[in-house]
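Hi,

I'm pasting everything inline rather than attaching a file, because the server keeps stripping attachments. The sequence lines come first, and each chain or strand is labelled.
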Amino acid sequence: MTGVLTLYRSSIGKKVIMAVTGVVLVGFLIVHMYGNTKMFYGPQVFNDYAAGLRDLGHPIFGHEHLLWVMRVLLLASVVGHIWSATVLTMQSQKSAYARGVTKVKRYEKKQRRTGYAAYTMRFGGVVIFLFIIFHLLNFTFGVAGYSAGEYIGEQGGVYNAYNNVVRGFSHPLVSGFYILAMLALGLHLFHGVWSAFQTLGLNNEKYTGTWRAVAMLVTAIIILPNIFFPIAVMSGIVHL
Amino acid sequence: MKLTLNVWRQKNGGAPGAFKTYEAPHVSPDMSFLEMLDVVNEDLILRGEDPIAFDHDCREGICGMCSLMINGAAHGPVRGVTACQLHMRSFSDGDTITIEPWRAAPFPIIKDLATDRSAFDRIIQSGGFISASTGSAPDANAVQVPKNFADLAMDAAACIGCGACVAACPNASAMLFAGAKIAHLGFLPQGQAERSQRAINMVSQMDAEGFGSCTNIGECSAVCPKEISLDVIARMNRDLIGASLKGVEPTGVVAVPAK
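And the predicted assembly:
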């Protein structure tokens, strides 16, 4: 137990928290993407999927029990991910923005010799966080992004998720924001997935190309379908 | 060659600094970057001005003293060389060159372009060594090291501790340095006994010094004059995670003097 505490106290330990929670969240993203493909099978299948999530693990788990276990795990992962990122960012900025007595933040713009994705992690993370809040207010609670009367909540155990998705993505601004957020998430994942291997000490010169390819594959598997959902609604492939 | 230099001048760590512009009218393309600065300094001394202070020692790329941020890149535009081994032929006639010191809170400025890098010494002091009674000199091949491990250890040991990694890092993190030092001893049989303790101690010292945290960008490796790979950071992470879970506690943290 003291070992876990020693790890937690170090900067690398907080990076480990970021990597492990990141892996949990990537797992969620893959399942979430897969679930959404059910919209192509029509309202019945998609609405049954929404209802089925509540009875996940039935009959071993009661109604919504396993769903809540997963929600708590996800929330803990999001909190842990953001918390460790914030603590490490503060530590890094203290080290890097050595204003000293000069009041000059940096003398000169530093040259960049590496890729773009790594530099967007913090800004991209904020965009993704704001997106998650909007996403929940939008599809989960139906309080944002809809015209009056468009969103239909649960009606006696029947879910109208299909209606809500189609009507939600019919708003070009909503769809546009989803697509932009997915591009930000794509950059975050491309660097983040590879970084998780590096942080957990599973990387070396021999495997780094493989892990980059895995990162690109995971990003493509999550982002391409996610971008296609709003496009499918707006182009009429998925309709009421 | 005729060059214009934009040099950071700062009297000491407590005084405010500013860029000053100097003309360097007679620069030979065969000069090293430091020789060019020597010529500028000669001229400053003749004019009765304070010469530009910069760190240097061996001038053959192996001591790690020279530490110049040249046009926003640690050690300048050429990969895999230190500033002392950078030659003026890498620049063009009429160029304006901006020269700054390393930039990180744990590297306070002593004067102008010279920074205090004792933080690195304290990281080494906390665990970058092997403590074994050696007695008289052993036979050269008494402890056998497989060739590939010897090579990897040597690659990591090539680190000269100049601090370019910290200067280039957007997070001012010292993980490439600490990783190189941990990997260098960790690849050798003599380094195994203290491997866990070394990782814990050196990382604790690195954190205590106030260095930032790695976000796996790779600017450090791109500017490293010895081209140390990011692998050493992954290895350090592996060593640290293993050591922590074994319950090893930091022991050798050296007091950080107030700045």
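Residues 117-245 of chain B form a domain with the Fumarate Reductase Iron-sulfur Protein; Chain B, domain 2 fold (CATH 1.10.1060.10).

If the labels don't parse on your end, tell me and I'll reformat.
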